[in-house]
Amino acid sequence: MSFNACVSALNGCELGLSALKHPFGHLIDTLQSEQYEERRYFNPQKLRDVRYEKLPFCMRVLLESTIRKCDGFYIKTDDVSSILDWQKQQNQAEVAFSPARVLLQDFTGIPAMVDLAAMRDALAKQGVDPNLVNPRCPTDLIVDHSLQIDYKIELIRNKERLQFFKWCSKAFKNINVVPPDINTVHQLNLEYLCQVVQEGEGFIYPDSVVGTDSHTTMINGLGILGWGVGGIESEAVMLGQPVSLTLPQVVGCKIVGTISPLATSIDIVLGITKHLRQAGIGGKFVEFFGPGVQQLSAPDRTTIANMCPEYNATVSFFPVDDITLQHFKHTSTDHTEKLVVLEDYLKAIKLFRSYSDQSEEPQYSEMNLSSIVPHVSGPKRPQDRVAVTCMKEDFINCLNEKVGFKGFHISKEKQATQVPFLHEGAEYNLAHGSVVIAAVISCTNNCNPSVMLAAGLLAKKAIEAGLKVKPYIRTSLVPGSGTVTHYLNTSGVLPYLRKLGFEVVGYGCATCVGNTAPLPESVVDAIKQGDLVACGVLSGNRHLEGRLCDCVRANYLASPPLVVAYAIAGTVSINLETEPLGVNSEGKDVYLRDIWPSKEEVNHTEENIVIDSMFKELRSRMEKGSSFWNSLESAESALFPWDPKSTYIRCPSFFNKLSKEACTPQSIEGAYPLLFLGDKVTTDHISPAGSIARVSAAAKYLQSKRLTPREFNSYGARRGNDAVMTRGTFASIKLQNRLIGKTGPRTLHIPSGQTLDVFEAAERYQRDGVPLIILAGKEYGSGSSRDWAAKGPYLMGVRAVIAESFEKIHRNHLVGMGIAPLQFLPGQSADSLELCGKERFTINIPQELIPRQQLIVQVDTGKSFSVMALFENDMDVAFFRHGGILKYVARSLLP
């Protein structure tokens, strides 16, 4: 479609908008390249606005999308002005953003695709070609590991879900279904799906993504703007709607200083996470800049961005720079031509970071890498961190302290105890602090190979220096996956780890949960004889006292290379900075600094050997696909053949009575409160994702389908069945409903005075034609975004929620389902208005509803009060008028 043509809500002409000249056509230029011939792009130099130069890089991505997608309806010229005036408009203006693509994982993908399949059915019944229903925004659906394991173990239980996904892959355009047994969703996003620069409709533009998981932010580490959204928001984007967001505050994090030679990627990530958590950046965008960023590899950056939920930021953005391009040279199949275009384009629109240009560094907060030093955690709890340089002193203090989290209470005269013992014919000595267990475990380090490579390179240098690990120390290597073994082999370091005793013992939970091979009897006897505080060192995530072995009292979590180092030293009572690890065959002292691999050495091995090999393997697996997926049969039809016996996939009733009419808002008359709730009602209260209780309404339904409790599975697994999910709405045993005065998934059916399951009460109200509302306190809908927390109430007949405040994503979900989010005016609440929750409510909704309009609520007791309708823009009002985003789009396709 021409850039200057009409741009409708669906990037087509189905909504019938009149043709308009694009308001920013004069900002479009042409990029010349041999590969792309002529591609148009937004040229900021034509903007001639000095404010663009001052925008953070992440805001420039927002601006580019807003200019390119401006249609005068969903995305307006005011949005462009607000972004350019970002510093004055932050936390105030609402803007619309159209990402380049959508990322779904299997559990959230099922309800989204079921909705599209149901929309096809509804339109086909109206005589409309069902093939018109497709995602408008390119969408990747990853059937990742959570479903893959189930499939192999219980084929029958998951076969129908996989067959549905297979049908989707063939029936819908603009969706890419990645089958199981390939990789997890975020690894695929990083390693295969991301493009940095996208092309479409004759344009090139920055890649961007919204995904149905909070850790979608990993992609920010590669210079791609992305964050997690809820299920209904993702469906809206799939159907061509932009994401609405309050223009965020952008906090700059300046990285300066030099990384300590002994600090690993784990130390860096945890240090930056701690800094940002203390900075109080909840809900903000973070952008990294400064000379220290050049010391962070691409995997380092993605790991930091992955920690966004830990420090409560929305985005952690690393602009594209030379290191990013170097990373893509190893991961792209056609890197030579494409990377030249990529670099030229990003420089043309000033999205390429050059750290030699000081003008690109606005003054924000600062993070000094020199302050990050290597730590271990222990001896009993993970939160007790100890700097490696202070390890010896701290261990001695632990011997002196009274028995507790940091103490063993060993008397002064016994602290020097040494116990000789024989092992395999040789004599050794054990003392307090002696290492007897050393386990390199990668389960917590899988997304960043650098720390495992550092351990392997250190082992290589140790062998070359003539160092060994004492044979009585129980050493082991437990990779988190076969991929780890693959890259340790490819880089050539695995044989050196084996020579030090770190053999691959298997894949799975081992040392952390106490699955350690028994210590030699002579070692155990020596520990008991001297009442010694022996030590274990591991790179896992659990190390409670006695967990590794009942005779090992001190256990430390450390990075993989430090595990190898302490194993060589044979003790934790050592200052690794000033004392030698051991003596070589020539009697010469060897220090840790002599064998510690430099960060440049690790990065070179990672980028030039490991990543290239890993990506070749991934591309091969993507091309071959999954054998059982390839053999899976599915229907060859535009409409999905719903199986009435299925308890996993069911056609939802969202589109019942679909017609072109009924597009004016109807007042809500004589509604009863289904529930009267307090503060901080979470989405877990509204729509639980866990197991299905045997006495619940959902259980009764499944039992009617002849399923046993063992076959119930979870609500999360049954998100494709509206009958189960509606019965699971408000099914939390922790729900506190003021109508009944006790905890549980029950409510009062007010006309009869009976206490019923919430679903049964809602069903009775719907039979009687009575509309429903919900009364609530502050922060209604907080917690994880969950689409069924809005879909379930909608199918129960809830028309409005009146609360003191709403969590923003959940508010968006309510609007997306056609439920009115109504907020008490400041200073008012159900209690201040003396509402008991048993009244009937009439809410007058005008024909010409506008955003943030005050509405009058009349109560059958004679009183009335005003509420604020939390529709933030015209788009919200349009969705509400049509009964939600799904009906809105479906009606646009009706003749």
From TrEMBL:
- Could you tell me one molecular function GO term of this UniProt entry? metal ion binding
Taxonomic superkingdom: Eukaryota
Q: Which residues form the Aconitase A/isopropylmalate dehydratase small subunit swivel domain?
A: 699-825
Name what cofactor the protein needs.
[4Fe-4S] cluster
Q: What does this protein do?
A: RNA-binding protein that binds to iron-responsive elements (IRES), which are stem-loop structures found in the 5'-UTR of ferritin, and delta aminolevulinic acid synthase mRNAs, and in the 3'-UTR of transferrin receptor mRNA. Binding to the IRE element in ferritin results in the repression of its mRNA translation. Binding of the protein to the transferrin receptor mRNA inhibits the degradation of this otherwise rapidly degraded mRNA.
Which protein family is named in the record? Answer: Belongs to the aconitase/IPM isomerase family.
Q: What is this protein called?
A: Iron-responsive element-binding protein 2
Recorded source organism is Cyprinus carpio
Q: What is the lineage of its organism?
A: Eukaryota, Metazoa, Chordata, Craniata, Vertebrata
